Description:
By secondary structure, the chain is mainly α.
Amino acid sequence: MHELAATAGVSPWEYSLRELQWRADERMVAAWDRTAWLAYHIPFTGGRGRWQDYSPLRQAQRAASMNALNNTVAQAKARMPDTLTNDEIDARWAKHKQEQDNAQRR
């Protein structure tokens, strides 16, 4: 309990154990976000990708969301009419994915 409070930077007596865990987790994410942002802006990295790509916590979140998205796509492909070939479906999906990536980078 005291360790969580120290990580969160608050008094342990003011919050429940669950609230301390939430605060400690969010503080850790914020610290990694600052580190990732700095790493992204260091000249030798060249600013490749997005700053979120430099944070291990954000990468785990992105991987989980991509897995969920891929499962949804697989279900959608199973429900599509037989008039489309797999190549046409994959081409449409690639175009949609590219549009989403472009929208996120703006």
